[in-house]
């Protein structure tokens, strides 16, 4: 049966393409280069190179590795953090890629932080260990709005709070959470802090970021929150290792529904029930299933890539991190680079921020908002690194 061979080949090929995909470059998300340059100071550069070259072979504990290089005033503090669920090889792959990528993106800066889906790398000339970052939090949110945003938000709030409570209680500072939005849809959430943070700081980092969700991302059914000290991600499809399979998206038809309008069972069923036809049907449906799965995962990926960058810290985003940070920058040339349209971001930021604008701070405008627990956001602007990293 040559047709069978064709399906087999097809199957093997699609499996192969899935496995090779896992070896690809990490999925770049965002980076920040501090604007204080080291003017190619030889000492600093040497220390930086030494720091970065130690990363790929370093033994991470709980996915985290921190070290310093050199002496004051040219000392560098650096760490990397891998997502809590990724394998050691994926972690190493991501970190190795990041060490090369970050110096291309921030060639002369003393401080930098770069995020990928699988890992995060950061260095600075200041001590950055065991302290909450003072950098602004970035929101990369899916462009799709959920079909039932109110229900989605309710489920999300409960699930994310559960995840935070779980994460702060373990040394790894990492937790995942699944929750049913409806019978056929599941929310998948992941939260993580750098494990050098105290559980109190981790809690604060995540809760302030999550508190922004109703404002930045109401009803959006996918997104990532990026802070150098903590991050989280939520999707309506499984995206981390160890996630349970998604619930069925189609309703199975009962045999009764095959009754034709006249009320009699369709006559073709017994006729078609020969062995070969059943075999053919099985092959055909598995073929259709494979196609469906591929298209589905492609769709999910497309959706996850269609993200907007929201910067709650200020409308100064467009000036501060201009196009050069986003376009044609990925050295690996991978298609996985999220395309982010600045005009959309600007519109979105404007849309949800203008009416809440309070005034200008050191970093740009300060916005007023209300956290889920009723606290005003303007107050939380003072907390390090969250809304307004002045
Ligand atoms: C760099 O930061 C300083 C303040 O820290 C600011 O005055 C200056 O405009 C910034 N430069 C650029 C190019 O953004
Ligand atoms: C590099 O840093 C050291 C220590 O701060 C300083 O003495 C030296 O002048 C700097 N070199 C340059 C080229 O800026
Ligand atoms: C890191 O490990 C690889 C392979 O194990 C080795 O080839 C390389 O020399 C090591 N690098 C350092 C800096 O130790
Ligand atoms: C890593 O961070 C911890 C926690 O702040 C700190 O105690 C330790 O000295 C750091 N390690 C290095 C090599 O700097
Ligand atoms: C880090 O570098 C900046 C810019 O050169 C400098 O102003 C600051 O004092 C340095 N911080 C430390 C702790 O060396
Ligand atoms: C979601 O619903 C399914 C049944 O529809 C159930 O088996 C599963 O335990 C639920 N998951 C959660 C996290 O509540």
UniProtKB/TrEMBL annotation:
InterPro entries: GNK2, GNK2_sf, Kinase-like_dom_sf. The keyword Transferase does not apply. CDD domains: Gnk2-like. Gene3D superfamilies: Gnk2 domain, C-X8-C-X2-C motif (3.30.430.20), Phosphorylase Kinase, domain 1 (3.30.200.20). PROSITE patterns: GNK2. The chain crosses the membrane at residues 268-292. This is Gnk2-homologous domain-containing protein. It comes from Rubroshorea leprosula.
């Amino acid at each position: 049966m040559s047709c069978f061979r064709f399906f087999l080949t097809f199957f093997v090929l699609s499996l192969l393409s899935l496995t090779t995909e896992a070896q690809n470059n990490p999925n770049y998300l965002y980076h920040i280069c501090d604007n204080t340059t080291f003017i190619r100071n030889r000492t600093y550069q040497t220390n930086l190179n030494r720091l970065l070259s130690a990363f790929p072979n370093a033994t991470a504990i709980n996915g985290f590795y921190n070290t310093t290089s050199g002496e004051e005033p040219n000392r560098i503090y650096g760490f990397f953090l891998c997502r809590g669920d990724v394998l050691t090889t994926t972690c190493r792959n991501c970190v190795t890629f990041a060490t090369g990528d970050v110096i291309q993106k921030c060639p002369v800066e003393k401080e930098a932080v770069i995020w990928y889906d699988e890992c995060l790398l950061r260095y600075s000339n200041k001590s950055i260990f065991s302290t909450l970052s003072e950098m602004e939090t970035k929101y990369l949110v899916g462009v799709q709005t959920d079909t039932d945003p109110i229900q989605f938000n309710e489920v999300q709030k409960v699930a994310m709070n559960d995840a935070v409570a779980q994460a702060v209680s373990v040394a790894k500072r990492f937790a995942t959470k699944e929750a049913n939005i409806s019978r056929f849809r599941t929310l998948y959430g992941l939260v993580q802090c750098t494990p050098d943070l105290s559980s109190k700081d981790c809690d604060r980092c995540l809760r302030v970021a999550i508190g922004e969700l109703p404002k930045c991302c109401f009803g959006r059914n996918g997104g990532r929150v990026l802070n150098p000290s903590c991050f989280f991600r939520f999707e309506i499809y499984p995206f981390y290792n160890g996630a349970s399979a998604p619930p069925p998206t189609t309703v199975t038809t009962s045999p009764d529904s095959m009754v034709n309008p006249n009320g009699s069972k369709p006559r073709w069923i017994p006729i078609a029930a020969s062995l070969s036809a059943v075999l053919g049907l099985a092959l055909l449906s598995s073929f259709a299933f494979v196609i469906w799965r591929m298209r589905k995962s492609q769709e999910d990926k497309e959706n996850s890539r269609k993200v907007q960058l929201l910067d709650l810290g200020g409308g100064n985003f467009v000036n501060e991190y201009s196009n050069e940070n986003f376009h044609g920058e990925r050295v690996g040339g991978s298609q996985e680079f999220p395309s982010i349209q600045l005009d959309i971001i600007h519109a979105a930021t404007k849309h949800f921020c203008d009416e809440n604008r309070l005034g200008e701070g050191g970093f740009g405008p300060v916005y007023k908002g209300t956290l889920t627990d009723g606290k005003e956001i303007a107050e939380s602007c003072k907390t390090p690194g969250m809304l307004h990293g002045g």
